[in-house]
Amino acid sequence: MLSRRGILKAGAVSAAGATIPDLVAERHADAAVARPKPFSRPLYVPKTAVPVHRSKTTDFYEMTIREAAVQILPGRKTRVLGYDGMFPGPTVRARAGRRVVIRQWNRLRRDAVVHLHGGLVPPEHDGHPADPIAPGRYRDYVYANRQPPATLWYHDHSHHKEAELVYRGLAGFYLIDDRPERCPNLPSGRYDIPLMLRDARFDKHGQLVFGMDDDNGRNILLVNGRPQPYFKVCRRKYRLRLLNGSNMRHLALRLGNGAELAVIASDGGLLPEPLPATSVRLSPAERVDVVVDFARYREGSRVVLYNTAGSSDATRRVMCFHVGERVPDCGELPDELGDKFDLGDAEVVRDVNLSTDAKRGRFLIDGKTFDIDRIDMRIRCGQTELWRVHNRDRRPATLHNLHLHGTHFQVVERNGRRVSGHETGRKDTVSVPIGGNVTIKVCYDRHLGRYLYHCHLLDHASMGMMAQAEIIK
Q: Which of 46, 104, 329, 339 sees the fewest Cβ atoms within 10 Å?
């Protein structure tokens, strides 16, 4: 990884000045902070949002973006930003093909933007930084949900402030479900659990500390806003929707005994069939749905979920499952899940280059920092393109990934080798290796207009690693 001295020296002004007016947090980052004993507190499962009104075609919601104080660490109240003041925000459970309208009220003293990550929505509802919600105002976001059932999430995308605002809590799950009869053998209801994994740094008063590009300092791993929780499960199958909600941290997840997981979905929906795995890797913003069969364990067992990419106990031990009694199960997983995703032959080939300007503290796409008034590429609607995405940061060595708004893409290969596992499904975010490349097939076939593409290591995006594509006829 890149030594941050050059980046932070050049970016010191923006990092020190990044504290938003609503949260003037004391910064004593190196002071000791009380941490709970691992696996001593229960998992928090985010509240499911309830529509304020339902019509024949649409579910209507209202949310308020505001500051709140929540308990993350024992005996402390941490000031956060949250949707409805929650950390994470409430989970929206939408139905494929049924429209959702969310009225987002902004009660902060600064602009806010809401992006539905993974949503195939028109540009005016995508959450572009040029379309902010002013303080005291609201914006109605309309989501048609005409896309495969999938684990999506919503988060802030304010101009050059998305890194800090998401870090301080502006993120939540948006789950598109199918009709139960379409997938009767997948765990559902109380056995379908969204898990947002992210790291954080706290001062001695238990307040979140934000410094740009501070991935090494964020040394406590949270699950749904709680450090190293436990979760009581029954002896049966569970669907775990895993989201890497970190700004910077990459995760490598496995069960402590190396037990097999069934990988059933990636960013954009179900895979063609369940894939056995003993671990899954997630760069920031990637999602993987897995099914774990806890019936294989005796009642009273303790099963730990580990992050093998962690550098300390606080980032290696993720959470613990406490196995209880046997209950009726959903049956064997189906042999077939979703459709095979293939975008066909490409008509256009492009190279996209990700790099770092360490002297100036900037991150670049094709040698340029983000300009909200500049279009970086024009793409014909319905035309399949092949993108060769290069991470040019060999020295200094820096991890990147790439997220595309407004479409799903097909990952072809990484460093010349075919990908496997969840990367064979519909993707909207993909990791790009240090000094290497990844090849993807891209097709915007829904809407015309302007969409972002950027590194979803959000600190990099806020420091310039973002660009815009215009989809034309």
A: 339
